From TrEMBL:
SUPFAM superfamilies: Cysteine proteinases (SSF54001). Keywords: Signal. InterPro entries: DUF3857, DUF3858, Papain-like_cys_pep_sf. It comes from the Bacteria. Residues 58-220 form the DUF3857 domain. Residues 542-634 form the DUF3858 domain. This is DUF3857 domain-containing protein. Residues 1-23 form the signal peptide. Gene3D superfamilies: 2.60.120.1130, 2.60.40.3140, 3.10.620.30. Coiled coil: none annotated.
Length: 640
């Protein structure tokens, strides 16, 4: 409300004043032309977003973009930046960027010399053809408006440009349009996301024109958790059945055809020098196929490094395996192809596979066959009973372990001439498990000696594994931040890693802590759950729109054994809890035997996809855990 009032005062000032317009001024950009309803929860408003795409014969594409955005405060200064990718197959021309004040008066232009041009992958000569132009148009006097225009020419395509109406939260949209003129010989297909509007279609010379227009879309205050962000913003995806990329023609008429095309793109790129072949054969002589694969994988990890290049930048074709050998580095495509080439040498069959790596993989929509559903490449060693997946970009992953980055999801590969969609390794709650025992020796002044022993496996091993690779100083900083013990002083920390296909870790930490419990008179107040409390969950009044997806199930089993001063008894304690929901299970129990107070906690997080109307029940389940995890036990001196 304060934000809207301040803008109202600005409007009155503009209306009361008189302005001398220059030829470069654009009064239509004045903030008085923004509908008031768009200002709610908005740090910026897209005034115009015009994307025109011209699909020409021979798979050439011309893209013309004009973006005009008004920025109200520093929270959205990043919206004044633009990063435009190009390479030897995509050229850029006619870039312009102008800045206007609140009333639409021209302030300045961003000059060509101020537009940075650099490699998309800094410091790696292999990718020097893959570049970006980066312009920044901050003004600093709010509100201000930025107008950015440019053209890109594509010599062929795999993916057509995607129209994203809102690409961030707290940005409203006044006007946005997409125009597609298709004069090529391919029928245009489109998939809309979160848009009710349908395109206006017109016949034009040698083809057809499609026009989408939207206006006055309020800002998205926040994205809903547990659902892919890209699926929550309005937009349109475009595709044609046939495409041509780097001179390689392919088809998106079906998933098998697209997968086959990507497979064919890698043919002939596995050649290795004879001296390397001899070395690999010597390393694996006399081993079983699985032992050979493990030896090759671990040798590759020790002798290469990963260069982070997103799939699509640097192309979809892997660099030559012999170049990886000579240079010692590569991106996900290169290292996966290189590992495949090494396995070929020793007669172990493997398959190059595309997958989406990271959190919240996009949901595959019916009718949309698109490379946007993948951003990473891994290797599969197929076996009827024991398929092995390899993450070739990691120098530390145990053989056969994918973890939460690419585990539990779909992948696309071509085997024996057939493109298929398959599932990667699925990790259950039994695989992702932590068993932790904590002993607390409590003194009468409330201080304590604490020892925590944890055995973790699956995705829960990843945190201790990462800590094990840190220096002593870094390790302590991380532990102090992670510990929930009040006022801790770490005496020692030991960790042992077991790098199996389902890896595990064993940790032991000894702590001295002050004021773990509070003593008042003859009573002691303590929270028995000292190591694993569920974080606070805030309820939302927002009506959920999307399903919620819970990934990576896990199980946590905690036992906290308190040795309390002699002569104490429980006066009040929390009731034992046992909850079973579709989203998880939660159990706690407390018992006192002599001077040993034992608190047990079991939490099972389930995986699944649930409808939006169940979200509040899910939140209530988590709130119950939060409340129970922080409950206290009150003890008093036993009567004599």
């Amino acid at each position: 409300m304060k934000h809207i009032k301040s803008l109202t005062l600005l409007w009155l000032m503009f209306l009361a004043g008189s302005f001398t317009l220059s030829a470069k001024d654009k009064p239509e950009y004045s903030i008085i032309n923004i509908p008031g309803e768009l200002l709610k929860e908005a740090d910026a408003v897209i005034r115009q977003n015009q994307l025109s795409i011209f699909i020409q014969p021979d798979f050439r594409v011309k893209e013309i973009s004009k973006e005009v955005i008004t920025i109200f405060n520093a929270q959205k200064d990043d919206a004044s930046e633009k990063v435009i990718h190009y390479d030897k197959y995509i050229s850029i021309k006619n870039i312009s960027c102008n800045i206007y004040d609140a009333s639409g008066n021209f302030v300045k232009s961003v000059k060509n010399k101020d537009i940075n041009d650099y490699s998309a992958v800094s410091g790696v000569s292999l990718y020097e053809d893959n570049r970006v132009k980066h312009l920044k148009a901050e003004y600093g006097r709010y509100p201000y408006t930025v107008e950015i225009q440019y053209e890109r020419l594509h010599k062929g395509y795999l993916e057509l440009p995607r129209w994203i109406v809102q690409n961030d939260t707290r940005i409203a949209v006044q006007n946005s349009s997409l125009i597609v003129e298709n004069t090529g010989d391919q029928e245009l297909k489109y998939i809309t996301t979160n848009l009710k509007t349908t395109p206006k279609t017109e016949d034009i010379s040698d083809g057809k024109r499609y026009t989408w227009k939207v206006e006055n879309i309020p800002a998205i205050e926040r994205l809903e958790p547990y659902y892919p962000a890209i699926e929550q913003v309005p937009g349109v995806g475009l595709q044609t059945d046939k495409f041509n990329y780097l001179g390689f023609e392919g088809s998106k008429a079906s998933w098998p055809e697209l997968i086959q095309w990507e497979h064919d793109l890698q043919i002939g790129r596995q050649e290795l020098p004879e001296n390397l072949k001899a070395k690999i054969k010597e390393l694996t002589d006399g081993l079983s196929p699985l032992e050979k694969a493990k030896t090759v994988y671990e040798w590759m990890q020790k002798n290469t490094r990963y260069v982070s290049v997103q799939l699509g930048i640097g192309g979809f074709q892997a660099m030559l395996a012999q170049d990886v050998y000579s240079k010692g580095y590569g991106d996900c495509k290169a290292l996966t192809n290189y590992t495949k080439a090494l396995l070929d040498v020793v007669g172990v069959k493997s398959v190059y596979a595309s997958v989406y790596g990271g959190d919240s993989p996009p949901i595959i929509r019916k009718g949309e066959i698109s490379q946007r559903y993948t951003n990473h490449v891994i290797l599969c060693i197929p076996n009827e009973k024991d398929t092995v997946w390899l993450e070739c970009t990691s120098q530390t992953n145990p053989f056969g372990y994918l973890g939460d980055f690419t585990g539990n999801r779909t992948a696309m590969f071509c085997e024996d001439g057939k493109g298929r969609i398959v599932n990667t390794t699925s990790y259950s709650e039994k695989d992702n498990r932590r068993v932790r025992t904590t002993t607390v020796k409590l003194s009468e002044d409330g201080n304590a000696e604490i020892e925590i022993t944890s055995k973790s496996q699956g995705i829960l091993y990843e945190f201790p594994d990462a800590i094990s690779r840190k220096s002593e100083d870094e390790r302590r900083k991380i532990l102090y931040k992670a510990l929930e013990v009040p006022n801790p002083n770490i005496e020692s920390y030991k960790v042992k890693i077991f790098p199996n296909r389902l890896p595990s870790s064993l940790e032991n930490i000894k702590i001295n802590a002050r004021r773990v419990a509070t003593k008042t008179g003859n009573r002691i107040f303590l929270r028995p759950n000292i190591v694993n409390r569920y974080p606070k969950i805030t309820s939302s009044k927002h009506q959920r729109k999307y399903d919620f997806i819970l990934r990576n199930p896990k199980q946590e089993i905690d036992s906290v054994i308190w040795t309390i001063p002699e002569g104490m008894e429980i006066e009040t304690q929390p009731k034992d809890v046992k909850i079973d929901t579709p989203y998880g299970k939660y159990e706690t129990a407390i018992k006192l035997e002599g001077n040993k107070l034992t608190y047990t906690r079991i939490y099972l997080r389930k995986a699944g996809k649930f409808p939006p109307e169940e979200y509040q029940k899910f939140i209530e389940f988590r709130q119950t855990m939060y409340k129970n995890d922080k409950k206290r036990v009150v003890m008093k001196k036993r009567s004599t």
